[in-house]
Design a protein that fits this description.
Strand 2 and strand 3 form a beta hairpin. The longest helix is centred in the first third of the chain and has 20 residues. This protein is of the alpha/beta class and 384 residues long. The protein has a five-stranded mixed sheet with strand order 8-7-9-10-11. It has 17 helices and eleven strands.
Length: 384
């Protein structure tokens, strides 16, 4: 049943539900219990979209979107909306009963403070619906229009929304191309929307978190290549290194990961508007392969001309390579490390074996002590 559900999710299909009775299996599990929550979130999304079209304050949101170069067509495609000013818009619209308010609370659309008062989470913000693989709204991201903090606000974790597994724009990317061969991972909602407007409809964004293995497995089930896009400053390179560390255990043979670093101070949104689609795609094409980024990053500040430097380099690099799954790619990476350091690949294997044996011995100090005593006295330790 789980395999059927995974396959259905990857294609955006609903698995037919069957009544739980002897001999029958309910493939949907507890998802049927979440149906009211999905309906609540969908109603909220439709409400926000209607407010962008008709609220007296909507001109501020429309002006901002136009200043960012977004068209009405792309805003409609991503179902962008407007959460108007005020504390109780959603509550007044959808929460007259206790059950309604409970659903709004469970979906994170309203907040209850310590004294029991409830209020709308999103206020005076442009809102971006976050959709799951099936296209259902599971959460929202909001960009402030005034001076409130934080600048961007995401829905909290709920029964139907987990930040570590959802990606903004994933549903749109999956359905935007018949033959998707790669996914570009960016850092913001507007990056995804702007790139799609210019015809690069295979980008996604993480939701205020670092890229996770769940994100990557979801991407790799859809296509064989992921490209991480970051600023070229120190913060961007540190974020890229974190992404690389998460990516290594997922790199089974046939998968590819690359890293794109933009000019400092630029992001995908601003760059594609300034330079156009062809220029941006040329950057994507020239993105650095995972192996190149890894080896070059680790060799920074190490003098590879000295034996000490090469020894240090191998010591730093080996733990990363050990994270790779067994396969041809792992063997090629070890060969590359051997070539860069002048150390044979068999030496790396022997080093790993010695390290494992050393660790095993440290974990058993009594056994180690006994073996030494036995060797010295040539008698079992339990004999006088």
């Amino acid at each position: 049943p789980q395999a059927i559900k995974i396959l259905a999710d990857s294609l955006g299909l609903e698995v037919p539900q069957e009544n739980k009775s002897p001999g029958n299996v309910n493939y949907s599990g507890s998802e049927t219990n979440y149906k009211p929550l999905y309906e609540c979130l969908n109603k909220a999304s439709e409400f926000y979209q209607s407010q962008l079209r008709g609220h007296p304050e909507a001109h501020r949101a429309i002006t901002y979107l136009k200043e960012r170069g977004l068209t009405g067509e792309i805003a409609k495609y991503f179902q962008i909306g407007f959460a108007p000013p005020g504390w109780n818009n959603l509550i007044n619209k959808f929460g007259p009963s206790e059950l309604d308010q409970k659903r709004l609370l469970e979906t994170g659309m309203i907040v209850r403070n310590e004294v029991g008062h409830t209020y709308d989470r999103f206020r005076d913000r442009i809102v971006f619906p976050i959709r799951d693989q099936k296209g259902r709204v599971v959460a929202f991201g909001g960009r402030v229009l005034g001076d409130d903090k934080p600048k961007y606000l995401n829905s909290p974790e709920t029964s139907v929304f987990h930040k570590g597994s959802e990606l903004y724009g994933f549903y749109e990317a999956k359905h935007g191309s018949r033959s998707l061969t790669r996914i570009l991972v960016t850092e913001g909602y507007l990056d995804v929307v702007a790139l799609a407007q210019f015809g690069i409809n295979y980008s996604v964004a993480t939701l205020g978190t670092s890229t996770s293995q769940k994100h990557l497995e979801r991407i790799f089930r859809l296509c064989p290549e992921v490209i991480f896009c970051y600023d070229g400053d120190d913060a961007g390179r540190k974020a890229a290194l974190r992404a690389l560390e998460v990516t290594l255990p997922t790199m089974i043979d046939g998968r590819q990961a690359r890293f794109l670093f933009l000019p400092e101070g630029e992001d995908p949104d601003t760059l594609i508007r300034a330079k156009g689609k062809d220029y941006f795609e040329s950057l994507i094409t020239s993105a650095r392969p995972l192996e190149e980024f890894l080896f070059d990053t680790l060799s920074k500040d190490i003098d590879m001309k000295t034996m000490e430097g090469r020894a240090r380099y191998s010591k730093v690099a080996l733990p990363y390579l050990k994270c790779l799954p067994s396969g041809i790619f792992r063997e090629l990476m070890l060969q590359e490390l051997a070539q860069r350091t002048g150390i044979s690949k068999s030496s790396f294997a022997l080093h790993e074996e010695n390290m494992a044996n050393s660790l095993h011995e440290r974990k058993k100090p009594e056994e180690k002590s006994n073996s030494i005593i036995t060797k010295v006295t040539n008698k079992p330790i339990n004999q006088k």
